Amino acid sequence: MSHSGGFNEMAATNCKDYEFLTIEPHWQTIWEKTKAFRADNGATKPKYYILDMFPYPSGAGLHIGHPEGYTATDILARFKRARGFNVLHPIGWDAFGLPAEQHAVKTGTHPATNTQNNIVNFRRQIKALGFSYDWDREVDTTDPKYYRWTQWIFLQLFKKGLAYVDERPVWWCPELKTVLANEEVVDGKSEVGGFPVERRNLRQWVLRITAYAEPLIDGLKDVDWPDSTKRMQEAWIGRSEGAEVLFKLENAALGDLKVFTTRPDTLFGCTYMVIAPEHPLVDSLTVPEQRDAVKAYRFKAASKSDLERTDLAKDKSGVFSGSYAINPVNGARVPIWIADYVIMGYGTGAIMAVPAHDVRDHEFAVQFNLPIIRVVAANDGAEELPYTGDGKVVNSPGYDGLTWPEAKKKIIAELATRGVGKGTINYKLRDWLFSRQRYWGEPFPIVWVSEADYARAVAVRSDLPAQPVKFIENGVTQYALPLPDAVLPLILPEVQSYLPSGLGESPLANVTEWLEIWVNIQTGAAVPASQPRPAGDVWVRARRETNTMPQWAGSCWYYLRYLDPQNAGALASPEALKYWDVPDLYVGGAEHAVLHLLYARFWHKVLFDLGVVPQSEPFKKLFHQGIILGEDGVKMSKSRGNVVNPDDIISKYGADSLRLYLMFLGPLEAMKPWNPQGIEGVHRFLRKVWRECLNEEGAINPRISETGALSADTEKLFHETIKKVTENTEDLRFNTAISQLMILLNALQKEPVLPRSVMLDVLKLLAPLAPHITEELWARLGQSGSIMAAGWPSFDAAKLVATTLTIVFQVNGKHRGDVQVPVGITEEELVKLAYENPKVAPHLQGKPLKRSIFVKGKLINLLV
RNA sequence: GCCCGGGUGGCGGAAUGGUAUACGCAACAGACUUAAAAUCUGUGGUUCGUAAGGACGUGUGGGUUCGAGUCCCACCCCGGGCACCA
């Protein structure tokens, strides 16, 4: 039995009216039964892969923002299918994460239970919208069959030396009893819950994303993304070119002070230096008489939270160390200050200050009365300082007269020759803090062993990193031993309590039987340490890693799993990776412009370098849908009570109306308010479509004819509509596609006879936007099979050419009238017509015609 | 402060440098109806004028152009991102 044969047996409903509550579930069931949206990995048709950002299945259910983006991609998926593509359009669940864990803490039920309930609800809501997902490819990041490969990718990063542990100050939230990433801290408070946070040192897993800073910038050149998003990623990576310069310290025993500067050309203007309060040389550079002042300043700086530090950003503070350094270009004696406007985490934690040409240095110099020397002259001779614009170098013997970029190049070369400096590139990008002290995340497939046991593992394992990852705890060095790929997935164990240990470790630290083990260093097999040690040298004592991975981990590679979701031997087969390639279009919110999209690109590039994936960038083309605001023009939120629930809209107007309205609201990328009355308009439009096809009894509209023809004007409009809807759909400009269809319907309504073929084409044009009603009407007009299999209408270019057109008369650029003329009319004839036109002629009376401008097919402008 | 995006009727918005306000909502008037709903028809920037018609109109002020919502310059306002990164 053929695929479409099965479909033919499926009948339409027998509704007399547009009863969407009957029609929509009816067709959804048929689609589901026939697996109408299955993507075929073996197809010979051209492929099209269209990807949504998969949702976090929250307890609140689908937010109206989800169906906005999802409707857009669904329309495109259906459009591409109609145009003959093998379309991959999948969905899944980004289901690990903090809210489920907090719910578990509150209720004591397993986060998996709550998560599964939420998924059931999300799935129901998404199906009610008629989205054409291939449900055989659904993924769930919390499924061990899925996170097995998340863990596997982590192991590849680990083996490549891209994962390490480090004790570092991290945000600690006493309320949540957990560590938060920088991006989860907003204005000194936790993003979730809004609780205060503080700094604390903890052992953390960190991914070396900085090793990929350069490729992550370079790759942006090759992708079709919104410019603003590219710029945001560039700014986040923050590449800056400059030089490291060594300043000899006056106290030669202390050696050199290394600074990073982007403007080595201004070295002659350096009048003081600044080191960060955390700089290792602070103590040795502080002279005895300054000791108390420096100590006090350091204490103050350390106790400031980042919030205070940025709040006080306007006021510069600092203290003199009492020591001096020697400027390598002119031997000048330069005082060294300590100030918190220099941060330890960037560059070398020390700067040369050039107050004449740096705004912050200038502010500081004015405040502390330090000298200011101009070394770049403004092109326009302006005297004002600080000056950061272009110009020629002055007061710099050997470089005067050069533009500053020239001087920069020359001075870097000179410093390098003398061995006191070199060109360098710095990035703002920090390594990625990759661990959380939480339960509801992927466990790390890592155990900690002693130095001696690790040495034994080195002898029998070939998959260990070149440099061991180790960590000193209570004076003992622990070594991170990866579990072999073969024992994955490492299943998240059951716990008694979902509360964090409260000491910075996750609830996993309380599961002793799981935590403390004998491990086989060769196979990764484990038995609880409470049991006797199995026989053989390969069994060693180990403690499991208790951190779990952040929510980003699962979302970093899900678009690859869709290609081959059941594969038990690889994250996806090489054939699937090659056939589907990367998504042709990725649609999601701009709030992921930096983090998710940067992290996923990083993993993809690592997988590319490992030969796992065949291309170096994961997302060729990216589009951000805008935010839908509440009726009141403010962002929707529960507390404001302006949230729109898709379920309510569907039960009142139907999914087709909701889809159409979401797309008709305005440009997809725009932020726009919800208008409850606006949906009436598109709903009326759908009812009008229904009435043009079927009469009140539900039988075919008697005006529909096999042989009749449209009037010439409507015929032309019909072909224009095909053209416009096709182009607009391709460009994701659905609002104008819909208005064009409305214009066509208004015209068809006035036609005495409706050719059947025209009505069928209209349904085809509308089908991606409103799939249920068009399936129903397609069947009711006597067509067999799904409208989705019926192809896409094409327009007749000859029909677009009018025989007469309207030419506008302008006199001196002002609109004065218009005239219907045949297509081939000449300029002379039009000028003549203008003088005869009762509306135009008065404006031409008594004034000689100086010139006329004729825009073919549009207008003629007469200058008098 | 820096980097983006945007300001068009009562509202959402449309407009390859060429008739500004398409399409939809809301409003008003009319038709159908015992009535209502539904549906259909029509009106609709401001201002002067009985009208025909004129003047002015896309945040503000300049400019380029035969012609500017659209291009250029300056400014104002709104939204987003970054924020002592040397």
What can you see in these coordinates?
With 864 residues, the chain is of the alpha+beta class. It folds into five domains: 39-162 and 208-235 and 549-625, Rossmann fold, CATH 3.40.50.620; 163-207 and 435-544, no CATH class; 240-426, Isoleucyl-tRNA Synthetase, domain 2, CATH 3.90.740; 674-790, Isoleucyl-tRNA Synthetase, Domain 1 (Orthogonal Bundle); 802-863, Ubiquitin-like (UB roll) (Roll), CATH 3.10.20. Helices cover 35% and strands 19% of the residues. The strands form ten sheets. Strands 10, 11, 12, 13, 14, 15 and 18 form a seven-stranded mixed beta sheet that branches. Strands 21-22-20-25-23-24 form a six-stranded antiparallel beta sheet. A four-stranded parallel beta sheet has the order 2-1-26-27, covered by helices on one side. Strand 26, helix 19 (595-609) and strand 27 (622-623) form a beta-alpha-beta unit. Helix 20 packs across helix 21 (655-664). Mean pLDDT is 92; it is low at 1-6. The structure holds one RNA strand of 86 nucleotides.
Looking at this protein, list some descriptive labels.
alpha+beta; Rossmann fold; Isoleucyl-tRNA Synthetase, domain 2; 5 domains; seven-stranded mixed β-sheet; 35% helix; flat; RNA-binding
Describe the structure concisely for a colleague.
This protein is an alpha+beta fold. Helix content is 35%, strand content 19%.
Question: Secondary-structure blueprint of this entry?
Answer:
Layout: H1 3-8, H2 20-34, E1 47-52, H3 65-82, E2 86-88, E3 92-93, H4 98-107, H5 111-128, E4 139-140, H6 144-159, E5 163-173, E6 178-180, E7 185-186, E8 189-190, E9 198-207, H7 213-218, H8 227-237, E10 240-249, E11 256-261, E12 272-275, H9 282-285, H10 291-303, H11 306-311, E13 319-326, E14 333-338, E15 350-353, H12 359-368, E16 376-378, E17 391-393, H13 404-417, E18 421-426, E19 432-433, E20 446-449, H14 451-460, E21 470-473, E22 476-482, H15 512-515, E23 516-520, E24 526-528, E25 539-544, H16 552-555, H17 558-561, H18 574-580, E26 585-587, H19 595-609, E27 622-623, E28 628-629, H20 646-653, H21 655-664, E29 672-673, H22 678-693, E30 704-705, H23 712-730, H24 734-749, E31 754-755, H25 756-766, H26 771-780, H27 797-800, E32 804-811, E33 814-822, H28 827-836, H29 841-844, E34 851-855, E35 859-863
Parallel strand pairs: 1-2, 1-26, 3-4, 12-14, 26-27, 28-29, 30-31, 32-35
Antiparallel strand pairs: 5-6, 5-9, 7-8, 9-19, 10-11, 10-13, 10-18, 12-15, 13-14, 16-17, 20-22, 20-25, 21-22, 23-24, 23-25, 32-33, 34-35
Helix pairs in contact: 2-26, 4-5, 20-21, 21-22, 22-24, 23-24, 25-26
The structure holds one RNA strand of 86 nucleotides.
